Amino acid sequence: MFGISPLGWIHTLGSLPAIPVAFYMFARHGRIVPRSTLGAAYFVSMLIGAATVFLVAHQPVSYGIGTLTILLLLAGYGIECILGSARIARYIETICLSLSAFLLMVPTVSETLRRVPDGHPLVTNLKSPLLLGAQGGLLAILVVGLTAQIIYLARQGKTAAN
């Protein structure tokens, strides 16, 4: 089904939970909160997806996305161990984890459009206007979202200082 191998299904189903978890945390907290139950679920699911991409990838860019995702996850979840609870740690954590969510969504949208509906996908060409528009929309969401997160963190810091 959908031209996905058994290993591809492990990759897909392993990383799938990260999507609703990320959406929920963005809606509820405005960012991915690593030191929470959902944050742990996001980390595990993203790690499964990023690690298994090396086994199922067909395009060289996938290896770069997998590597970068793992580095962003480790940085986002580990920065507090290095810098403590300094304000800069919260900024780095937020930026890294938001970028990891973006790196999850770009191939997710691409693969979905290129596989659904089964047998007659919406997109058959990587230069399809629909695919490029969807990827551009994700980039716009990233830019606006990161800007809003940074402004929120800055305001939160000023409130704590007063």
Which characteristics define this entry?
162 residues, mainly alpha, 0% strand, globular
Short characterization:
The chain has 162 residues and is an all-alpha fold. It has helices at 6-15, 18-29, 37-56, 60-83, 87-115, 129-161. It starts with 5 loop residues before the first helix and ends with a helix.
Notes on the protein architecture:
The chain has 162 residues and is mainly α. The protein is built from 6 helices and no strands. It has helices at 6-15, 18-29, 37-56, 60-83, 87-115, 129-161. α2 (18-29) runs antiparallel to α3 (37-56) and α5 (87-115) runs antiparallel to α6. The N and C termini lie far apart (58 Å). The relative contact order is 0.11. The model has no long low-confidence stretch (mean pLDDT 94).
| Mean pLDDT, all residues | 94
So how many helices? 6
- Rg from Cα: 17 Å
Number of E strands: 0
Poorly predicted tracts of residues: none
The ordered string of helix (H) and strand (E) elements is HHHHHH
Question: Pairing-aware structural class of the strands and helices?
Answer: mainly alpha
Write the layout of secondary structure elements.
Layout: H1 6-15, H2 18-29, H3 37-56, H4 60-83, H5 87-115, H6 129-161
